[in-house]
């Protein structure tokens, strides 16, 4: 994650590329994190969610490997946050999949998984070298894994000349995470990172995999609230929650909890033990909140939108039991701070980040008040980050900033800043 005062991730990736491979990259991949406004633990229940891709981003500076087109090349990546590089010899292992093939450990497994799925779907891949720099904190509920998966997919697609379709690439990255890395997550994260639209949240229907952009009112800011606690999804109770939801659906006689409403839940309550009932109630009410939130945002009714966030936090805390003392304390601190419409934990839970919708004109008062409130409650420091909703994963040609004079293009957030021209105090 970016330390205050360090250069932007884009520039760090370019510098790390030169240090690791020599010379300049030919292209840059930008791959965003996501924040989920509402619709938590609904994706694997065929349900609805409302995420946004945000301007906490991973950048990859890349170049095709010399003379490594087609068979026999490799994908070689270094990362500023990983002690060991990731290397995938081409063609990647497991194409066709063989019993007993094991994923590489750590981050290399995600790189390998994406290469395996791409090769299975599209045939031979060309080799490339890349340096990864990221402002997306790991294990914080902001989808650092999906951001990496989509970045690798975009790098491979660019170098090999594969077509880029956000939804198919999201599915492919999701397959890599589920079947190669072995993390049985839903499709929310990959669809959000790949399909982001500047200035919009995305209304995602996880049953038919449709995505509908919902404009965010200009006067409101999404604020990410990092508790500075971390979890690992593979070892968390995520799988238990999936099993509890599947059990609830089975006992209620529906294909997935998406198909249950409050009426059916009340009728079938006698079949469910109290824990299974509570899990089902969260999912059923959360799907409703997603639709209500989309309607509130479209109507510009921020009081209603905020109320839904806060109600959603109570549901995920009390019925779904994936919050933590720190996440609860952060939500309380946000709700007590000036300009806050509503707040909730975001992502898989157990640790990581909450988010709030905040009146943009009151951010200056909101940010220090949350920090102080959270510290008073937990003794911990935190990171409070106002974010913009940005476009999904994309590749751009590398232009050395020393050779480029202003004016440049608008950035992905469309907010008037220009990508990569903030050199963080560094001069060419
Ligand atoms: C994690 C998972 F990866 C998503 O698929 C989703 O289930 C989320 O937790 C909870 O909404 O981010």
TrEMBL record:
One of its GO terms (cellular component) is cytosol. Keywords: ATP-binding, Carbohydrate metabolism, Galactose metabolism, Kinase, Magnesium, Metal-binding, Nucleotide-binding, Transferase. Residues 16-64 form the Galactokinase N-terminal domain. Gene3D superfamilies: 3.30.230.10, GHMP kinase, C-terminal domain (3.30.70.890). InterPro entries: Galactokinase, GalKase_N, GHMP_kinase_C_dom, GHMP_kinase_C_sf, GHMP_kinase_N_dom, GHMP_knse_ATP-bd_CS, Mevalonate/galactokinase, Ribosomal_Su5_D2-typ_SF. One of its GO terms (biological process) is galactose metabolic process. Residues 82-102, 403-428 are annotated as: Disordered. Its EC number is 2.7.1.6. GO terms for molecular function: ATP binding; galactokinase activity; metal ion binding. Transmembrane segments: none annotated. Residues 110-194 form the GHMP kinase N-terminal domain. PANTHER family: GALACTOKINASE-RELATED, MEVALONATE KINASE/GALACTOKINASE. This is Galactokinase. It comes from Pseudofrankia inefficax (strain DSM 45817 / CECT 9037 / DDB 130130 / EuI1c).
């Amino acid at each position: 994650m970016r330390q205050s005062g360090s250069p932007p991730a884009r520039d760090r990736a370019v510098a790390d590329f030169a240090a690791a491979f020599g010379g300049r990259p030919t292209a840059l991949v930008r791959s965003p994190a996501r924040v989920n406004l509402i619709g938590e633990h609904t994706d694997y229940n065929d349900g609805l969610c409302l995420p946004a891709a945000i301007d906490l981003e991973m950048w990859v500076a890349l170049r095709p490997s010399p003379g490594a087109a087609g068979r026999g090349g490799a994908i070689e990546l270094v990362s500023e946050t990983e002690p060991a590089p990731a290397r995938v010899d081409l063609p990647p292992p497991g194409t066709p999949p063989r019993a007993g093939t094991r994923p590489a450990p750590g981050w290399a497994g995600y790189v390998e998984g994406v290469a395996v799925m791409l090769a299975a779907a599209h045939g031979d891949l060309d080799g490339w070298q890349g340096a990864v720099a990221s402002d997306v904190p790991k294990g914080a509920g902001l989808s650092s894994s999906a951001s990496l998966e989509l970045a690798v997919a975009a790098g491979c697609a660019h170098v090999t000349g594969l077509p880029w379709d956000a939804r198919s690439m999201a599915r492919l990255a999701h397959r890599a995470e589920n079947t190669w890395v072995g993390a049985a997550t839903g499709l929310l994260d990959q669809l959000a990172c790949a399909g982001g639209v500047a200035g919009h949240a995305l209304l995602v229907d996880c049953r038919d995999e449709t995505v509908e952009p919902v404009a965010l009112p200009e006067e409101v800011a999404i604020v990410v609230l990092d508790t500075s606690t971390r979890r690992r999804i593979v070892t968390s109770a995520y799988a238990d929650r999936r099993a509890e939801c599947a059990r609830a659906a089975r006992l209620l006689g529906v294909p997935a909890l998406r198909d249950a409403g409050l009426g059916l839940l009340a009728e079938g309550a006698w079949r469910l033990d109290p824990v299974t009932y509570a899990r089902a109630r969260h999912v059923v009410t959360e799907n409703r909140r997603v639709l209500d939130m989309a309607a509130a945002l479209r109507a510009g009714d921020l009081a209603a939108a905020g109320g839904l966030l806060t109600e959603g936090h109570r549901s995920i805390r009390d019925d779904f039991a994936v919050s933590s003392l720190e996440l609860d304390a952060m939500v309380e601190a946000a709700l007590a701070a000036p300009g806050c419409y509503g707040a909730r934990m975001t992502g898989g839970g157990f640790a990581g980040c909450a988010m709030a919708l905040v009146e943009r004109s009151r951010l200056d008062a909101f940010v220090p008040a949350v920090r102080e409130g959270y510290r008073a409650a937990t003794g911990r420091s935190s990171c409070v980050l106002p974010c913009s909703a940005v476009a999904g994963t994309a590749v751009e040609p590398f232009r050395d900033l020393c050779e480029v004079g202003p004016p440049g293009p608008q950035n992905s957030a469309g907010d008037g800043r220009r990508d990569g021209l903030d050199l963080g105090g560094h001069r060419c």
